[in-house]
Specification:
Blueprint (H helix, E strand, L loop, with lengths): L1 E6 L9 H7 L3 E6 L20 E4 L14 H14 L4 E4 L1 H9 L4 E16 L21 E12 L5 E6 L7 E4 L3 E4 L7 H10 L13 H5 L5 H17 L4
Parallel strand pairs: 1-2, 1-3, 3-4, 4-9
Antiparallel strand pairs: 5-6, 5-7, 7-8, 8-9
């Protein structure tokens, strides 16, 4: 089994996702787009049929910056092919926005930046099944959980998707499209070193706001915070792995 991870900047890596894959027996290919690694092309070794799980990480750029980052066009096309092929796809922050954009939804600035540890609430989903899929119940988040955020943009939901989580600072926090694609506006993968890295590299984005914490607040967590978030990440990755069963 092969997992591919699209990484946009050196300081927003896969965090706890990579060891989860390796423990589950996956080969892991990390594609460093910031270092000119090519986006897998159709017919090449990176074709969706040779990708068993795709993860799209975060980054400070916008999905609309195609003139600055031309590889965004190829990346969106690859994401769309993986989704259409029924492969498990997880998008984190920018990655969720890329899924939305790849599937025809608008991505635009949110009213407020959301930076730091803030709760998201699960959106009740029907007990029947996903739209158009009679054999799959959507992923369910805990009723409320504090997670790590770092974003200024938001997105409209792609057609046919189901909203899974929301927050007062940003309505569309998590969505599911079909059996096997999930977008998260927030970060479940962050370990303490990841929080340290992003607060250092993106310190200029930490400005006063209703949903912005200081770097010190982000680094000072009560015991058990990472463990609770990691448990949800484990549940989500397991759910997506089983999506094609």
């Amino acid at each position: 089994m092969r997992a591919r991870i699209l990484q946009h900047v050196p300081f927003e890596g896969p965090g706890r996702i990579e060891p989860w894959f390796r423990h589950a027996g996956y080969e892991v290919d990390i594609i460093h787009l910031y270092d000119d690694d090519p986006v897998p092309a159709e017919g090449a070794a990176g074709d969706p049929l040779e990708t068993d799980f795709l993860v799209v990480m975060g980054g400070p750029m916008s999905v609309n910056d195609e003139d600055v980052y031309p590889w965004l066009r190829d990346e969106k096309a690859f994401i769309r092919r993986c989704i259409e092929a029924g492969r498990p796809v997880l998008g984190v922050c920018l990655g969720a926005q890329l899924i939305a954009s790849a599937m025809g939804a608008r991505v635009y600035p949110n009213e407020h930046r959301e930076i730091g540890w803030f709760p998201v609430q699960a959106v009740p989903v029907p007990d029947d099944r996903l739209p158009g899929d009679l054999g799959r119940i959507p992923f369910r988040f805990p009723p409320a959980i504090e997670v790590f955020h770092w974003h200024g943009d938001t997105f409209e939901l792609p057609a046919g998707s189901v909203l899974l989580a929301e927050s007062p600072g940003c309505r569309n926090q998590a969505f599911q499209l079909g059996r096997s694609a999930v977008g998260l506006q927030f970060h479940l993968e962050m370990a303490p070193e990841g929080v340290d890295a992003i607060t250092k590299h993106c310190a200029d984005e930490i400005s006063p706001g209703p949903w912005v914490q200081t770097a010190e607040e982000m680094r000072s967590l009560p015991p058990g915070r990472y463990e609770r978030v990691d448990a949800v990440l484990d549940q989500l990755l397991s759910y997506l792995v089983n999506a094609c069963d």
